[in-house]
Design brief:
Structural class: alpha/beta
Bound molecules: threonylcarbamoyladenylate, magnesium ion
Radius of gyration: 20 Å
Distance between the termini: 22 Å
Order of helices and strands: EHEEHEHEHEHEHEEEHEEEEHEH
Number of strands: 15
Shape: globular
Strand content: 15-25%
Largest sheet: 11 strands, mixed
Oligomer: single chain
Length: 346
């Protein structure tokens, strides 16, 4: 089992030493937990791919300490990148820029662009400034699976005694960062997140494009049709259809927001808050709790289509895509939820 270590001075020193030795360290961010390695060290970066089971041509995000010199990693750094970085960093925004030679192929999957982000989490910030260099990190889950928002989620993803996991509590936001491509004539959102198109447009004073649900290239695995997926087959169902029990088979699990369908005792239910930010915060932990019951199916009440819900709907759509999840092996730990009514955990 991978050790979870407190993010005190001793834990931080251990994590920095591990990174300096080319090892992989899992750490919390405000979005989700990341699986990090020294971005300048191709051998260390390749260890991330091996652990994650991710194809090696899929690029990673380089996490930077606040105030890092962008010109080391990206050239050119257009004004639009500087403007949004100033406004939203540290924070849940990743910028795609043309890379410099300092960025190894292992990080970018061989392509000429690099993804950069300054996370807004005290543990990540301390780790990055103590390490003093970029940390390449995807979300700390097996390829295609639900992202982790707590240290114990990372423990259940990987069974590696050498993987240090820094404790940082529950990720505040709970969904991965917004990805904004600023390499072209028009800034374009490749993955929606907590930094919305409206927020970006307001700061830039110009339109921002949204590549939409089919921003689909093999180079952006988070944009594959099926991703962020529980192990159980998952279905997104309009609230109107959930007024009757007909669409909920026995042995299934339900993720609800406002619907109150009549269900029998074989159905496990989990209720998330009405508010979009609170829903996002709890979503991945809820999917994991429900999945841990090994339901025949997870049925998710479709949230509203309003602007606040765009990132959530993007993830729910991918989690429930009929091509199915990547079907990574189940986690090494037994389910930690035993009651019929899965409880929201802290
Ligand atoms: O919130 C987040 O972004 C989290 C935390 C740990 O920072 N990280 C994360 O990483 O979600 P990952 O690897 O699971 O997703 C990063 C996404 C992938 O879809 C990847 O393909 C895309 O960013 N990406 C990375 N580099 C890219 C590039 N040069 N061009 C286009 N997309 C890129
Ligand atoms: Mg991911």
């Amino acid at each position: 089992m991978s050790p979870v270590i407190p993010a005190d001075d001793a834990g931080m020193a251990r994590a920095v030493a591990a990174l300096e030795h080319g090892e992989v360290v899992a750490f919390p961010t405000e979005t989700v937990y990341g699986l990090g390695a020294a971005a300048h060290d191709p051998r260390a970066v390749r260890r991330i791919f091996a652990l994650k089971g991710r194809p090696s041509d899929h690029p990673l995000i380089v996490h930077l300490p606040a105030g890092a010199d962008l010109a080391r990693w990206a050239n050119p750094v257009p004004d639009v990148a500087r403007t949004v970085a100033e406004a939203f960093w540290p924070g849940p925004l990743t910028l795609i820029l043309q890379r410099t030679d300092a960025v190894p192929d292992a990080v970018t999957g061989g392509q000429e662009t690099v993804a950069l982000r300054v996370p807004d989490h005290p543990v990540a910030a301390t780790l990055l400034s103590a390490f003093g260099d970029g940390i390449a990190a995807p979300s700390a889950n097996r390829f295609g699976h639900v992202s982790p928002t707590r240290a114990d989620h990372v423990v259940r993803e990987f069974d590696d005694p050498d993987l240090l996991i820094l404790e940082g509590g529950a990720s505040r936001i709970g969904l991965e960062s917004t990805i904004l491509d600023v390499t072209g004539p028009m800034p374009t959102i490749l993955r929606p997140g907590a930094v919305t198109r409206a927020m970006l447009e307001a700061h830039l004073g110009r339109p921002v494009a949204d590549a939409g649900p089919r921003a689909d290239t093999p180079r952006t695995p988070g944009q594959r049709d099926s991703h962020y997926a529980p192990h159980a087959p998952t279905r997104l169902v309009p609230v109107s259809e959930l007024r009757t029990a007909d669409c909920v088979a026995s042995g299934s699990a339900l993720l609800l927001r406002e619907a109150e369908p009549p269900v029998d005792e074989t159905v496990t239910t989990f209720r998330l808050p009405h508010d979009a930010a609170a829903y996002a915060h709890g979503l991945y932990a809820a999917l994991r709790s429900l999945d841990a019951h090994h339901p025949t199916e997870i049925v998710i009440e479709r949230p509203p289509d309003d602007a606040d819900w765009i990132a959530i709907l993007d993830r729910l759509t991918r989690a429930s895509h009929p091509t199915g999840p990547a079907r990574a092996p189940r986690w090494s730990e037994p389910p930690n939820v035993t009651s019929k009514e899965a409880k929201e955990e802290p």
